[in-house]
Amino acid sequence: MDNIAPHTDSNEKGFTLVELIVIMAIIGVLVLVALPSFSHFKSKAKNAGCAADLRTLEKDITAYIVDKGTLPSSLNDVGRGGFKDPWGRPYNYKRLSDPDAEPYKEFLGVEALNTDFDLFSAGQDGLSDKSLNQPTCIDDIIRAADGGFVGLGGDF
Hints:
alpha+beta
């Protein structure tokens, strides 16, 4: 019984510490490459969701017009007063028939984007000067051409 040697097999399977470090480095590089793409995808998804919300609000406003014969005074009138954009801020709605309404303007602030009502989100930065030639409006999600366009202000 004393002549039994302990089991020593030189062909043991497994990863060495160096191999594990190399694998972790490769995974780290892949994550660093993927993060900007994910961030861009997330931003585009929020913009698309916001544009879809604007279309929904536009339909609610149109249904109100058909039912009541006039534009709602606020989004509260269509049951959407607490509705927020993907960045957690309320949507902007203005009846252009109101005497104090300042319409969202096209380039150089000359021509209004809509003739009936303005509906937009100030976008990711939360800033809007209501004129497409201002840098703060490039990321605004807007309704323009009386509903013929809904999307990024920079794309109009």
